[in-house]
Amino acid sequence: LYLQALYRVSAADFEGAASYAERAAAVDPKRPEVYSVLAHAYRRTNRTQEAIAALAGLDPLTRSDFPPILLAHAEMLFSEGDLEGGKAVVAEYQADFPEHRIVRDYFQGRIALLENRPDEAVKILQIVYRDQPAFTPAHYFLGLAYLAAGQRDAARETFDLYLRQHPEDQMARAVMAQEFGRFQDLQTLIEVA
φ, ψ for residue 34 (rounded to 5)? Predict the structure, then answer.
């Protein structure tokens, strides 16, 4: 069932993926990767609250066995405007994985940005991006932090580079269009990359 759910995700059949993942979770409720697929499928079908509930309802030991569960849960809570809930999940992550400095610092930057402290967010996210340039969320949110801090040139440069590396990211393309009045087509971004 889990493999079928993964296959459905790869085929962009998120309703089917959710159905298979739900059944897989019923058969083996202690398998965290099933919940990761389930939450992803729920989000892609605009059922974010169900995704949050599925991750929140997991046994704490199961959650701590699979760090991506906690990361996804915190991100969903933040994107839904639940800052305190997101902070609680971040604290859970930090307690379970104190050695993960990059993720800890990334979330400190995200929280600073959400709490309207953009200059602090920029400083933190610059360090995270410098130390781990492949950590995509830090790169994206660094661009947003630059915007919030009024550093438009740095934001434009950050998003230009980000989109060369991730030309498929519709949210980043929308930010570029809204903030800088330009929207590069996907083919141009791919050719530049």
Answer: -65, -40
For residue 148, give every residue at least 6 positions away whose Cβ sits within 8 Å of its Cβ, in sequence order, or none.
113, 116, 118, 121
CA dist., res. 51 & res. 75, Å (int): 11
Summarised one tens digit per residue, pLDDT across range 56-81 is 999 888 888 899 999 999 999 999 99
Q: What is the distance between the alpha carbons of residues 158 and 95, in angstroms, rounded to a whole number?
A: 32
DSSP string, 128-165: HHHH-TT-HHHHHHHHHHHHHTT-HHHHHHHHHHHHHH
**Taking a C-beta distance cutoff of 8 angstroms, is the pair 141, 113 a contact?**
yes
pLDDT digits (tens, 9 = 90+) for 116-136: 999 999 999 999 999 999 999
Query: What tokens appear for 62 in the block?
Result: 């199961």
Q: At what angle do helices 101-114 and 83-96 cross, to 10 degrees?
A: 170
